[in-house]
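Not sure how to ask, but would you mind making up any protein sequence you like and the tokens describing how it folds?
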Amino acid sequence: KATPVEDSNRVYLTIDEIRILAKSECRDERLKKAFLFSCLSGLRISDIQRVQWNNLTKTTDGNYEITLIMKKTRKPITIPINSDAINLLGDIKKGPERIFSGIKYSANLNNILCQWVLMNGIQKHITWHNARHTFACLLIASGTDIYTVSKLLGHKDITTTQIYSKVMDESKRTAINNLPSFG
């Protein structure tokens, strides 16, 4: 049996790039909101397509969380949602209506996403799944422990999540190597 090769070359957006995208226009505003929401929640496109208003609840401390059964793993997950993600939703509704109705995963959706990113000077090939990578990398960069990141992503095994730590270690090395020299 062949040993799987680790894919540490995951493309993700930085917080500054997300801020640029949040302030920019996109050809499809639903896609923009859904993609940014995914960057801030870690939800896969399959779950973004299915999430309903009744999956979103206000907690006793006034914050929000989404509880749903993930399509890929068929496991329940509860994800706290921050205020930036909530602001993307506009007026909070009730009931079984889909939050991001009309989002259909396709090559065209990824093309619109890529064009939007490139139009804003971000030279990265971004597809929908990179939102999930972005979420994980932002959490790790902000000091969140790998166990918590794993639980927020709904991973069954922490080794699946450890790839993001490696990505961030490489990012740290690149940052250090980019420091100006004294000579």
The longest helix spans residues 158-177.
